[in-house]
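Lab notebook, page 48
Experiment: co-folding of the full assembly
Goal: obtain a model of how the components sit together before planning crosslinking
Operator: M.T.
Materials (sequences as entered):
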Amino acid sequence: MDTFVTNLAVASLVPSHHNTVYHLIVIVVAAVAAFLPRYFPMRFFTNRKIPEWFNEWMKYVPVSLFTALVVKALFLDGKYQYFFDQVNALGTNVTVFGHASYLIAAVLVAIVAYFTRSMLSSVVVGLVTVWLLTFVL
Amino acid sequence: MQQKAHQFNPGNQRWLEVLGISMPLCLSYLPIGVACGILLHAAGMNFVLTFLISIMVFSGGAQFILASLLVIDAPISTIFMTLFFLELRYALLGSSLSKYFRSSSQKFVLLFSASMNDENYAVNYLKFATDKKWTPQDALMVEHYSLISWASGNLIGGLIGSTVTIDLEIVDFALTALFIYMIVMQMRSHLSLIICLTSTALSLFFLTLTKSTLGIIIATLIASLIGFAIEDWVRKHSKDPKNAWVLKRLFRPAMTRHTVEDRQMLSEKKAQQAAQVEAANDSGEE
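Observation: model returned without errors.
Model output:
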């Protein structure tokens, strides 16, 4: 067991390509890119009075943002182009706009979230549905 | 429900209570974290680096995208710009939370913003809006609990990455499912449904136009401004803004109508009715 763990550790320490220094630079760059937009706007507004209209506007930011992120995952491919899925339904080929299995799973996730308000069951139902659909579609 | 919580937490300790609130979040972070660790391992990072990045970046979307950028050997400038635009949404999320951190120190704000994330933001935003006893300290605790589970997930993923192969198409959907869940949680009025549809159309247009995550930011900004404008217009032009169709609450199944927010609304309504009755009595006496 011990040798297995050490072997595993050694194996994971050797990168398949690139070197550690390059990866460390990437990590620092990524951390800076992640930190700047999180810190400065928040810092700016804790010292100042936020105008009422700003608060009212911010109410609609999360729903717009999450929708945009979901749309990207459901309807676009890796190159930001519209994705069309070929699905064999009841012996006929159907062209669907978007990733077919994701679309079906997305509807189920929304239904489960609506009725249970549970994050975990929503995610699990989504993953299981996509997994099951890989056998069907 | 509360009695049950009391059994698990006899001393009524705050850290345990907050842990209970963040548990669903932590439990869903763990498997996604493992998937992300495996993905980063496949992109050539060892488990130490994977662990480091999960703490320093702490963003599911950013780390997934970073893995795909590493695979295609993207230049560092591209990596920075892509991640920066992806993370730019936190500017909006952070400033929407900032009103609750008026009395906190700058060091605290630094610490808090460093580990802010879509999901723990959603939890904290809801708690701040509905729970009067929710403090910045509690919010930071939620962030750190989720960070611990996310980082452990990444570490595990980085360690087992060489031994397992997973279907990336399935794992990829975990993040989407999480976002769909949060959209449903955000659905309060008919207007939020309209904004959701508006954002769908806008993001379809701008994502293909910009061919980058910049489209997400543009669509978010426009859709949220439209929502703000509609609400503003209704409030100014409707005789009874609270009961106007756009601002009316969406129908929800009876079994999910027991949130803190609902109770607050009910007590507000009762107080209003009591005030009206009192006012009627007063005028009757005169």
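Interpretation: Strands of chain A lie at 84-89, 92-97.
Next step: discuss with group before ordering constructs.
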